[in-house]
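Just curious. Invent one:
>
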Amino acid sequence: MENSPDIAKRLFCFGFGYTALALAKALEKKNWSITGTSRSPKKIKALESHGFPAHLFDRDKMESSYYHAFSQASHILVSIPPEKNGDIVIDLHQHDLKNMNNIKWLGYLSTTGVYGNTGGNLVNEKSTPAPTSDRSKRRLKAEHAWSDLHKAYNTPLHIFRLPGIYGPGRSALDQVRAKTHKRIRKENHRFSRIHVDDIVSALAASINKPNPGVIYNVCDDEPAAPETVTAFACKLLDAPVPPLIDWAEAQKTMTPMALSFWNDNRTIDNTFIKQDLGWELKYPTFREGLRGILKTDISAKTFS
């Protein structure tokens, strides 16, 4: 059931995860009609409990019912990570997207991982990508596929490169509460991050002021060492601050996925999106972000 008759406000989310759900909740208040896809029947039920229709969408199994909502969309958000054999949305729908004149905006959620390892140096949207992990290499390949579609058929593409995402139900506060937090010390190593509400405001600003073909870095103003963020979360919760673990020791028990994050060291420049869209951060650093999560005391389910 659609929640608005306005055909100019129909959002379809390929991959209705944590960020897409946050965007959907914000746009719903402005009378948007929103639907999307998930690979998980369990998550589809959860999305429906929030009032958002969702459809099963996977290479191995999908519901054809999603196609009607997709074909009627005025705006499309793509957050499905590319697989080894490519981007599923491009593979299945590039021919459809060529001919969908009703699309006013298409947002692709990528990663700052495409910049690779800069030794901590600052990167902006003009920096040459040099991904190191297979996961980030696939992301860059997907970016190129989407960019080719834009160049060939004027698809209104906008690429958003995101660092680590945190927010209600997905933050250092949750790790401290679950007692899974650690403080790992790697010399001169910092991570950029972004609160999910600030991603939502960036996407909304882009929707209101489309600039097809653009790439945006979406991050907060202060890259920070993970052990600093964890210590601050402990302080907010009046929890003991765990001792520092040296990187040489910590990496011995890390998963390949965790190592891939720690092996890259870069800081991200967010100047361009501020200038182009007039975007303002609600949470300019992790301090405001964690205080905000604690203040609202929201227990949000995590969708990955």
